[in-house]
Design a protein that fits this description.
Order of helices and strands: HHHHHHHH
Number of strands: 0
Low-confidence stretches: none
Strand content: under 5%
Helix content: over 70%
Distance between the termini: 92 Å
Radius of gyration: 42 Å
Mean pLDDT: 85
Largest sheet: none
Structural class: mainly alpha
Shape: rod-shaped
């Protein structure tokens, strides 16, 4: 299709007559002037590029307004998808934050350290000979005196002291990182 000066003049007049009306229409829904202006320009360009396909008696202003309307709808639906995705991400982030807060509130450092210390003590004891482990268990967990342990295991009280000293040395070494914690809780806690 050949474009004549008259076609171009008619289009320029149509553009001048309707551009601001279409922009006001688009702004009433879009709420952003620059985006509304882009939509109107795109709509008018679409009309210009497809004008040959229209019937001769087509209502051009209504046709272009329909294009503006559809482009506004597409834009708003796109914004809605973005906002829904953002709301979903915000909701997920809020759930995670609430979860971290409640987990941290439920956290008891004493219990964590106690559990860790018990694991370390258990690991040290598991590596000891059976007699040494038995002496320590009777002394520390069953609160038996050195004499009672010696009588029960048929060893001397010096032997009981040897085993307990050995375990205490190993535990001191294994628990050296927790020494400040124990001192804090013993003197200040």
């Amino acid at each position: 299709m050949t474009v004549t000066k008259d076609d171009l003049a008619l289009f320029n007049q149509f553009f001048a007559d309707y551009q601001q009306r279409y922009i006001r229409f688009a702004v009433s829904y879009i709420r952003e002037v620059t985006i509304a202006e882009d939509i109107v320009i795109d709509s008018m360009m679409y009309y210009w590029e497809n004008r040959a396909k229209l019937p001769p008696d087509a209502n051009i202003p209504a046709y272009v307004l329909t294009i503006v309307k559809n482009k506004c709808l597409n834009y708003l639906k796109h914004v809605q998808v973005q906002q829904d995705a953002f709301a979903e991400m915000t909701e997920q982030a809020q759930w995670e934050l609430n979860s971290r807060i409640s987990t941290l509130e439920a956290c008891e450092p004493d219990e964590l350290f106690n559990h860790e210390v018990q694991n370390i003590v258990g690991a040290v004891l598991s590596k000891l000979p059976k007699n040494t482990r038995k002496v320590f268990t009777l002394s520390r967990y069953e609160n038996k005196s050195h004499k009672e342990i010696a009588a029960e295991l048929n060893i001397s009280t010096k032997g009981v002291e040897f085993h307990i000293t050995k375990v205490n040395r190993l535990l001191r070494q294994a628990l050296k990182d927790y020494l400040l914690y124990f001192l804090y809780w013993f003197f200040l806690g």
